[in-house]
Amino acid sequence: MIPRHLYVHVPFCARRCIYCDFSIAVRRTVPIDEFLDALVLELEHRSEHGSANSSPLETVYFGGGTPSRLGGEGVARMVAIVNQFHSIAAAPEITLEANPDDVSAQNAERWATAGINRISLGVQTFDDSTLAWMHRTHSAAQARAAVAIARCAGIQNISVDLIFALPGGLNRSWRDDLDEALALEPDHISLYGLTIERGTPLARLTASGASALAGEDTYAEEFLLAHATAVAAGFEHYEVSNFARTGRRSRHNSAYWAGAQYLGIGPSAHSFDGERRSWNVSPYAEWVSRLAGGSSPEEGGETLSVSNRSAESIYLGLRTAKGYRAEAADLDVARSWAGAGWAAIDDETVRLTPEGWLRLDSLAAGLTGF
Ligand code: SF4
Predict the structure, then answer these.
(1) pTM beyond 0.85
(2) Is the distance from CB of 96 to CB of 120 less than 8 angstroms?
(3) Interval between CA 195 and ligand 1 midpoint (Å)
(4) Distance in angstroms between the alpha carbons of the first and the last residue of the chain
(5) Which ranges of the chain would DSSP assign to H, the alpha helix?
(6) Which ranges of the chain have pLDDT less than 50?
(7) Which atom of ligand 1 is nearest to the CA of 15?
(8) Which distant-in-sequence residues (6+ apart) come within 8 Å of 339 by Cβ?
(9) What's the CA gap between 271 and 321, in Å, rounded?
(10) E strand or H helix at 367, and its extent?
(11) 269 CA to centre of ligand 1 in angstroms
(12) Angle, CA of 14, 17 and 22, to the nearest 5°
């Protein structure tokens, strides 16, 4: 495996957000040393087994969880550990996911000197009562301040995450959230349409009737409003859930969507070597104890068949503005999409429109590769 893209999963969160089913470890105090020691053991293990041998990394993505909870020094040490095992290409993209309440001037300056050059900020909404409903740990004012602090520290490439299709009874306006986000002049915006995941606090609330998700019409209206608003503000809608200013697409996520090889370390992290996808154990304690005991943290893997890979490349292509080059049989199907306003066809390349992205899964399922 010659990965040029590294994902590091940092599982710690102060508490679980209402909608979140990610692999996280809720900790009041983050066991920074224990986590970083285990990270070293995983990189050593992967070096010995040939899956972390270096070609220069073009992108590194510290995701979670909440990697910013490692603080200034913790993140700097994590970056140094990556540098111990991998060389880094010229002009890399090194992203840190951060929650606004962790973005102090001191932390941001340390992150910048350590090499972090992109922040993905979990803003979600600018309505404080909705942030409280979500169990977020920060306020809208902290989100606004975090953007200014990061820029002041020299981290210029900033993405903000927003959530749409929230339950109707909440005191928030999607239009206001979009306007507030754009007023911060981010380089990139990622959207998440709220869904109910099993086992989350939101699943329990909806099951009890205390909350109800927005309907399909609201979901579609808000998605299309985001498209129109961001494009009018100069963003490119380059993937179903992502918008970027020119030159500011997420290089790391774009590598996933292009089917590139990547290495993932940390609990629950996935890796892909071009043919086989593998994943680590999810529980933090098990990940630590396996590594401490000299065992592999890998829990499972699957080698993708030719048909799996074909289906995946169609799906990934349809997610992006790049589209996918269709076989003759699929072109007939795609022409019917174009007639409905769901796709555009240029030569043999099929690109979904925003209306088409609303139907991404069902359209992809109708193609021959699936
Ligand atoms: S901060 Fe992110 S990872 Fe942590 S609980 Fe909230 S949504 Fe999940």
Answers:
(1) yes
(2) yes
(3) 14
(4) 27
(5) 32-48, 71-85, 105-114, 128-133, 140-152, 174-183, 201-207, 216-232, 251-257, 284-292, 306-319, 328-340, 354-357, 360-365
(6) none
(7) 5
(8) none
(9) 24
(10) none
(11) 16
(12) 90
Residue 92 has a pLDDT of 97
Q: Which residues have any ligand 1 atom within 6 Å of their CB?
A: 13, 16-17, 20, 22, 24, 64-66, 99, 122
**Among 324, 329, 332, which Cα is nearest to 351's?**
324
Domains: count for the chain: 2
As a whole number of angstroms, the distance between CA 334 and CA 253 comes to 26
Tens of pLDDT, residues 56-106: 999 999 999 999 999 999 999 999 999 999 999 999 999 999 999 999 999
Both tokens of residue 290? 């396996």
Q: Mark which of 257, 276, 296 sits at the end of a domain.
A: 257
Closest CA to 19 of 197, 158, 178, 251: 197
Residue nearest to atom 5 of ligand 1 (CA): 16
How far apart are alpha carbons 16 and 197 in whole angstroms? 13
Which of the listed residues 257, 281, 298 is the one where a domain comes to its end? 257
**101 and 18 assigned to the same domain:** yes
Domain that holds residue 326: 306-365
The predicted pLDDT at position 3 comes to 84
